[in-house]
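Please, structure for the following, as tokens.
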Amino acid sequence: MLRVTVSALTTVILLTGTPAPAGAQSAISLLAGPSWDLSGFGSAFATNVGFAWRPVGRGFVVEPGAGFFESTRGSEGGETTWFFPEISLQAELPAGPIYPYLGAGAGLGRRSSPDRDRWVSTLHFLVGVRVAVSEDWSLRSEFRIRLVDPFAESIGDLGVGFARRIF
């Protein structure tokens, strides 16, 4: 009985009672890197900005954010620009300064192209890692698959960047 009580108390203290590094605080992040229109129309540079918020402490992240992707569509010609306001729910596993995570979310996508502009719904799935490098800063890398409209097109982003703890 004493072992179970000590183990339970230690778990609670470790999960809630210790200060967390930059990867475990609410933070704003900027990611950038290559992005591919997986429907076969091209690739380009993508950026994503997000606000990682942990409403219940470590292990669970709510992240509203926005992504931007622009490409020249091979067969259609012209540029296509996507803007993605979205929200993700992520499960992370804190392991010292390293925070690997898996997530999924939904949002909207605004497609602007020479032939038309439109808003569509999106779904996305992601896997990534946050690495605390100081109390306020962390590095971050993420791979995200985005299903657009929701299955008419798909886009893959590989982002690398940084995050700054804001509270």
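The first strand starts at residue 27 and ends at 37. Residues 1-24 have pLDDT under 50 and may be disordered.
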